[in-house]
Design a protein that fits this description.
Beta-Lactamase, Heat Shock Protein 90, six-stranded antiparallel β-sheet, five-stranded antiparallel β-sheet
Length: about 600
């Protein structure tokens, strides 16, 4: 018997050790997965920020080469390259344009690939006078009209991104204009971010990096064909192209992350392809924080399980002591059991009643949602259909008068309204699978003109004076154009209705940049918002209009759209009279910077 007890004790200790080890291993695995997930989320955010900044830095100079095509003196120089006075004039003009644009270099190349003029014609390292026909961006612009290329300058020895554009007069290709974009500032800004950043080109060579020793080195040894192309185009200057000590090590336990060994240090790698340039953007984070966190969680879980087992042992010993006492409470247990059975029966009855009530509430909720959706559809189609009716009547009048030009303009506007209704019905078709909004740069002036197209007849009928200011005129926001136009139509139409009986009818629109965002203000000279309406201004079916004049859904829908676009919408009364609605929206990243 004593031997059996000893064996049972040994087995119990072994089982306890196994449980502690299992808890520690499970916590280690879970902690590692959680740490990798957080690391990947942070890396994806950095990838978004770096990619958008890099794309914007390159894109803001896209217009510059094509600008020279409308400059007669540049085309004259390509036709008369021996004209010294004309060459001097073009050189000085290129310097003035480049000083305003802020590019690294701007120069003109003839069809032979010879650089004729440049903004730095009088500086050391200028490309003027050099044959650049071997450069890929020169060959691409002469063959296809446009070219892109990243490499080290042949004469300046400075790396940069080249954008080229073919210059034609009539149908004759005379040469090309090239702008060189300096990306060193963006590369320097990455050093302030966590981790390491690499940009790898189509040859697998690192062209931008937070570590200078990694730049112009391939991740893997280059193939013979790649080396031949590099020898021909010389994108990396005199770099030796020694491969990095880059050793992929497979997945890191998370679908979006990979492990890589670089220079003896293990990193978690997250990457993204940049379609515009064809580059791979790579973010590297060291793995030691993940290992430390997993080890800490494993230790904590092991200690917690050990404490739990000790508590369980104490509980078991206490239970043995109380077992005799429980025998004396048998009678009481009978009473408690009866009470418990009764309580369980009542709980089951209440549960059945609650389920029935829940079913009825679910049905009522579905009916309410269906009613709101139907009302919203009617509300959004009402204004375009009313405008279509007005323009159709105008078309008949213009046809009778024989005003063909005005009739053509009127029919064009009818087509735009039909497209607007089509976009709305297309949004309804995808309503069940709606994802996050696809934000794009949208010129605010264009959206405002589209909204005024719908409400202008109403403004003229009521004799409303319109004052509008957009500063700067090219103010661009991040939004979905149809949905932003829908919000502006609702705000303008509500302002017009509010001033229908006002003695003075003035509608003011003011759009400016305020604290890194676009602030659009719509002010009317009406009687203002009723006090009882202010607290529930953006609630569904809240309206001060008479029956049949409105459903009370416009502001509620507008506020919902603005929130999805990342903005805010507020309404209040002005001390001097009238109502004011303030709409804020995020700016295009380059504009915000």
């Amino acid at each position: 018997m004593k031997r059996l007890r000893s064996l049972a004790l040994v087995l119990t200790v072994l089982l306890a050790v196994a449980l502690v080890a299992a808890a520690a291993l499970g916590a280690h695995s879970a902690g590692r997965r959680a740490a990798l997930q957080r690391l990947d989320d942070a890396a994806q955010h950095r990838l978004d920020m770096i990619a958008s900044t890099l794309e914007a830095e390159v894109a803001r100079f896209d217009y510059l080469p094509s600008l020279l095509e409308i400059t007669p003196s540049v085309l004259d120089l390509l036709e008369r390259p021996g004209d010294t006075a004309l060459r001097d004039e073009v050189n000085r003009m290129l310097r003035a344009i480049n000083a305003t644009a802020g590019a690294d270099m701007l120069y003109v190349v003839d069809r032979r690939g010879m650089a004729l003029a440049g903004a730095d014609w009088d500086q050391p390292g200028t490309p003027v006078g050099h044959d650049l026909s071997f450069r890929p961006y020169v060959r691409a612009a002469l063959a296809e009209g446009k070219g892109r290329f990243y490499g080290v300058g042949v004469t300046s020895r400075r790396p940069g991104y080249y954008l080229s554009y073919g210059l034609t007069r009539g149908k004759r290709l005379l040469g090309l204009a090239t702008v060189k974009v300096r990306l060193a500032d963006a590369e320097q800004a990455w050093r302030r971010l966590p981790g390491q950043v690499l940009v790898v080109d189509e040859h697998g060579v690192v062209v931008l990096s937070t570590q200078d020793v990694w730049r112009f080195r391939p991740l893997q040894p280059l193939a013979a064909t790649a080396r031949a192309e590099i020898e021909r185009s010389r994108p990396y200057g005199q770099a030796a192209l020694t491969p990095l000590d880059w050793q992929p090590q497979g997945a890191a336990g998370h679908a979006a992350t990979q492990l890589v060994l670089l220079g003896g240090t293990q990193y978690v790698m997250s990457e993204r392809t940049m379609p515009r340039t064809g580059w791979r953007l790579i973010v590297l984070d060291e793995t030691w924080p993940v290992v430390d966190q997993a080890r800490t969680l494993a230790l904590a879980a092991g200690m917690a399980s050990l404490v739990g087992l000790m508590a369980l042992l104490i509980f078991w010993l206490r239970r043995r002591t109380l077992r005799q006492r429980m025998a004396n409470q048998a009678a009481l247990q009978v009473v408690l059991k009866a009470a418990r059975d009764s309580l369980e029966a009542k709980v089951q009855e209440r549960t059945a009643e609650l389920r029935a009530t829940q079913s009825e509430l679910l049905h009522a909720g579905k009916m309410a949602a269906l009613g709101q959706m139907s009302a919203g559809i009617v509300h959004e189609l009402n204004q375009p259909l009313a405008a279509l009716r007005t323009m159709a009547d105008n078309a008949v009048v213009l046809l009778d008068r024989g005003q063909a030009d005005d009739l053509r303009w009127n029919l064009g506007r009818i087509g735009q309204l039909v497209d607007r209704v089509g976009r709305f019905t297309q949004q309804l078709k995808g309503f069940a699978h709606k994802g996050p909004p696809a934000l794009q740069p949208v010129p605010l002036q264009r959206v405002l003109q589209g909204a005024l197209l719908l409400v202008q007849p109403r403004l003229r009928t009521l004799g409303i004076e319109l004052q509008q200011r957009i500063e700067p005129p090219a103010l661009t926001v991040m939004a979905e154009e149809p949905r932003l136009e829908q919000v502006l139509v609702n705000l303008l139409a509500n302002a017009a209705d509010a001033m229908a009986e006002a003695p003075r009818r003035l509608l003011q629109l003011d759009a400016v940049i305020d604290d890194g965002r676009c602030r659009l203000t719509v002010v009317d000279s009406g009687p203002g918002i009723a006090d009882d309406m202010l607290p529930r201004l953006f609630e569904p079916f809240a309206t001060s209009k008479p029956a049949g004049a409105g459903l009370g859904l416009g502001l509620m829908i507008s506020a919902h759209i603005v929130r999805e676009l990342g903005g805010t919408l507020e309404g209040r009364n002005r001390p001097e009279g009238g109502a004011v609605f303030v709409l804020t929206l995020p700016l295009r990243p380059a504009a915000a910077a």
